[in-house]
Amino acid sequence: PSHAGCSTSPAASSSPQETTSPKTDKLFSLSGLFAVYKPKGPTSANLLNHLKAKLLAEAGVQEVVRKRKKPSLKIGHGGTLDSAASGVLVVGIGKGTKLLGSLLAGSKKYTAIGELGKATDTLDATGKVTEEKPYDQVTKGDLEKVLQKFTGDIMQVPPLCSALKKDGQRLSCLMKKGVAVEAKPARPVSVYNLSLQNFQPPLFTLDVECGGGFYVRSLVSDIGKELSSCASVRELTRTKHGPFTLEEHTLHEDKWTIDEIARSLDNCMSLLPEEPSHKKLKIEHSGESAVSCEDK
Question: Which domains are assigned to the chain?
Fold first, then answer.
């Protein structure tokens, strides 16, 4: 198989004890984009580390190999998903990590369950309740009318608790340490579609399709304020990221094997743009870090 960017140096492979197995060869030849299912709980980075560890263990590759200057497995994700959220997490492996930048500004779809009358410091159910307000006056019609104000190109203030950074540290990490964090300025974001799926006070369910850099938690909080109440996210699921959908493309943990990922990479090739746009995207996003991006 092709060792995409992962050939070992002559010095590293001269000893007979260090010969690679077919599994190792196959693992280091994997290249492209695929999607995994992220459950509630782990951070996107932790999930990626777990995935990487499983693949290296299956191939019989130990961490100590890196110290001999053999190639480490290149892997990254195309957009942070909150630890409390679940759904599609797009993963790049091998040369596919260079394509992750193209996903940062791409379209995403979410299903969000919001709760009226309760605000938290994280804008979701994981945080401390900071405010409670009546919501009995809010009707389904009120909510549907308010959604129109949040559709199209809008300005949005990112949450204090987020993957955005200050002085090299994530705001969410600073908040956990008790450091006072200032709100980032409002920035332009795009909402392509926003619809109310269910309304059973205090809960309401939204379908959201948005562009990069958008925070569903901020949206739900802003909707609560607009309704003269307050609101926070009870549950959040990313159902689509770029061309990858929750139903069709995500691999659950029991499918995190070298062979399953190889199959998935083959199946997902047709979803990706043609080579010329890849080159263009690499230039446009050369300054971005795909693993620590800010999208929610």
Answer: 16-105+244-284 (no CATH), 108-241 (3.30.2350.10)
